[in-house]
Amino acid sequence: MKVLHLSTFHQFGGAAIAANRINQALNRAGFSSAMLVADTSVVEPFVTSLAQTPWQKRWHTARFALDRLTFMPFERSRDVRFAFSPALIGTDISQHPLMQQADILHLHWTSFGFLSTRSLNKLFALQKPVVWTMHDMWAFTGGCHHSGTCEGYQHHCGNCPFLRTAAPDDLSHSGWLRKQTAYQNARLTPVGCSQWLANRARQSSLFGKLVVQSIPNPLDTRVFVPVPKAVARWELKLPDHKRFILFAATKVSAVGKGFSYFQKALGLLRQQLAQPDDLELLIFGAGDESLLQALPFNYHFLGSLNSVQQIVTAYSAADLFVIPSLEENLPNTIMESMACGTPVVGFEVGGIPEMVQHQQTGYLVNYRSVEDLANGIQWVLEQSETAFQQLSANARNHVVMHYDETVVARQYIRLYNDVVTQAGPPGG
After folding, report:
1. Does residue 427 register a pLDDT over 90?
2. What is the 3-state secondary structure (H, E, C) of the chain?
3. What is the pLDDT of residue 254?
4. For 69-77, which contacts have Cβ atoms below 8 Å and span 24 or more sequence positions?
5. What pLDDT sits at residue 340?
6. pLDDT for position 252
7. Mind telling me which CDD domains this protein's record contains (predicted)?
8. CATH 2.40.160.10: does it fit domain 3-218+405-423?
9. What is the reported pLDDT for 44?
């Protein structure tokens, strides 16, 4: 049995990292798994780039630009430019050799010019079983990646809050109709990375009649392991006598990552601490470092970390990891931090409550509460050495038990066997 994973990106963004980890985990488990991505500059076994030549790479970039241009006339503001994907631009990969060889197609995050709704329709027409791991809500909405408080996806979309001119027959409604048509003859099994996302898919009009599974993202817990704090701080040239709060994001300035809440909470925290100068910040990710200059604590900005060992070292050097995201599925960063024995403080949103057990592996914060975010950080910092060691051990044990790649690979292999042997006609 051969499975082919489809992802726009190879190693950029949480969804691509998760998809790549699933592919790696399956291969290490002895399963025949390959991955086809729109483009990549990284050579890796079992991963193939659709764009091979310089011209093909330029055409990939052009498709990405065209995809965004199709949405710009409709967007409510620049803040939502990457929050909605009409999927009008894509490429036909139905005749690709890897596609023809595959017994199962495994979709991941395929927007931004890789696969359009029409491209998906051509894949579904092959009548191969399709597993779709949803890294956000896009698969069952009219185009948004996270709907927030909007529940239009439970009906037929329309009157979309992401659009400049919302109407019953707006861009979100036409996107919903295109997906409804594409899914009609698909042999489709949706999978949520979190129970939260799987439940939302079950409530949707597009996937509500399907059997929606829930399988988490995997992590290689042999790689993500605790490094002694003194060693980690020495490697990063950090003072050993300080306490460190870690913040990380693919793009620090992204609105959904909640940096403004983090900044305000730190302001409160500084007033609450008896010795605030003993606390410093550790930050890694992409974006403008000037955003950090208003923070009320000294900070160490590591920039984008490309080495896994550097990332492990950064998690291990911190006393806690703060994730103030306003919308999340099942963040890779949380399981990475916990696997390194670093407790997590984050809002009670999306799949985060499935990962962080309140006051056992970290602190769950009341949604959008700056005050509780400050309280949660302070709670972790004030734990005794013995209590902190227990928090650390609990965090790692939770990841090993639920997210280790061998555990997740077994779940996917069972699912593949089920979808291949399922009897009955396809339907959506």
Report:
1. no
2. CEEEEEECCCCCCHHHHHHHHHHHHHHHCCCEEEEEECCCCCCCCCEEECCCCHHHHHHHHHHHHHHHHHHCCCECCHHHCCCECCCCCCCCCCCCHHHHHCCEEEECCCCCCCCCHHHHHHHHCCCCCEEEEECCCHHHCCCECCCCCCCHHHCCCCCCCCECCCCCCCHHHHHHHHHHHHHCCCEEEEEECCHHHHHHHHHCCCCCCCCCEECCCCECCCCCCCCCHHHHHHHCCCCCCCEEEEEEEEECCCHHHCHHHHHHHHHHHHHHCCCHHHEEEEEEEECCHHHHHHCCCCEEEEECCCCHHHHHHHHHHCCEEEECCCCCCCCHHHHHHHHCCCCEEEECCCCHHHHCCECCCEEEECCCCHHHHHHHHHHHHCCCHHHHHHHHHHHHHHHHHHCEHHHHHHHHHHHHHHHHHCCCCCEC
3. 67
4. 71/171, 73/164, 74/163, 74/164, 74/165, 74/170, 74/171, 75/162, 75/163, 75/164, 76/161, 76/162, 76/163, 76/164
5. 98
6. 63
7. GT4_WcaC-like
8. no
9. 94
CATH architecture of 229-403: 3-Layer(aba) Sandwich (3.40)
Residues near 29 by beta carbon (within 8 Å), at least 6 away in sequence: 406, 409, 410, 413
Domains 3-218+405-423 and 229-403 share a fold: yes
Phi and psi at 344, nearest 5°, equal: -125, 140
Q: Which residue has the higher pLDDT, 181 or 13?
A: 181
251 by Cβ neighbours in 10 Å (0-12 / 13-18 / 19+) ranks as: middle
Report yes or no: 116 and 66 within 8 Å, Cβ to Cβ.
Answer: no
Kindly list the domain boundaries of the chain, sorted by start residue.
3-218+405-423, 229-403
CA angle 339–345–350, rounded 5-degree value: 90
- In contact, 343 and 318? CB cutoff 8 Å: no
Please give the Cα distance from 196 to 194 (Å, whole number): 5
- Residue 258 or 229, more confident: 229
- If you count them, how many residues does the chain have? 428
If one counts every other C-beta atom within 10 angstroms of the C-beta of residue 230, the result is 10
